Amino acid sequence: VVLATTIVISNMYISGIKQLENNNSMVMNYKEIYTSSLDVNNVEQDLLKIKQYKSDISDIENIALKPIKECGVYSKDIQTCITNNAKIRKDIDKAKYMSDDMEVPQLSKKEYTKTLNECTKYMKESYELKYKAIDQIDKLIKKDDIDNVSEIKKYIKQSDEKIDKYQKQISELERKIRNK
Question: What span, in angstroms and rounded, lies between the C-alpha atoms of 70 and 93?
Answer without folding.
Answer: 17
